[in-house]
Amino acid sequence: MSSPRAVVITVSDRCSTSAAEDRSGPHAATLLTEAGYAVDGVRVVPDGVESVQQALAAAVAEGARVVVTAGGTGVGPRDLTPEATAALLERTLPGIAEEIRRVGSHTVPTALLSRGLVGTLGGAVVINAPGSPGGVTDTLAVVVPLLEHLLAQLDGGDHG
User: Fold this and answer.
1) What is the CATH superfamily name and number for domain 5-154?
2) Which own/partner contact pairs does 103-108 have at CB distance under 8 Å and 24+ positions apart?
3) How far apart are the C-alpha atoms of 58 and 24, rounded to whole Å?
4) 14, HSE (Cβ side, Cα atoms, 13 Å)
């Protein structure tokens, strides 16, 4: 059986224009690969609703089972990743997003400012992570242990 496909999307105006180095996306790709997912590079898009929605829809259409965005979850004027994601999600998983913020806040109190969402779109799980390597680490530490069961449920597997 092949590894489930995962797509990482960095959401950052600065990284999309090469004004800043993307450290979060490659970190997410490494952690997902280490967890057994097939990750084919990192996609970088500018902040904003349309760019994020297009990238999410493309990833799911291409067969990704796990889509992680890194960035755009704060309260800045261009931090619109949650709004873009919310418009596409079929079901939200608020308990996971709450746990990500709780875990992150133990080391970085401002983690509570993240507005990231977690939910499902088609047969995929979509996860909004903050745009920092630490935020990505905290996010995937919470999510990765749940993914196998979550993907099995999306496939109609037993709830036992």
Assistant:
1) MoaB/Mog-like domain (3.40.980.10)
2) 103/138, 103/141, 103/142, 104/130, 104/134, 104/135, 104/138, 104/139, 107/134, 107/138, 108/134, 108/135
3) 20
4) 10
Give the count of beta carbons closer than 10 Å to the beta carbon of residue 153. 12
- Concatenate the DSSP letters of all residues of 105-133 into one string: HTT-GGGGG----EEEETTEEEEEE-SSH
How confident is residue 159, by pLDDT bands cut at 50, 70 and 90? low
Q: Give which of 89, 65, 64, 78 is closest to 16, Cα–Cα.
A: 78
Amino acid at 63: G
**Cα–Cα distance, 34 to 52 (Å, whole number):** 25
Does this model's pTM top 0.70? My answer is yes
Domain boundaries, the chain: 5-154
pLDDT in tens, 43-62: 999 999 999 999 999 999 99
- Tens of pLDDT, residues 29-40: 999 999 999 998
The two three-digit tokens of residue 89, written as one number: 């999600």
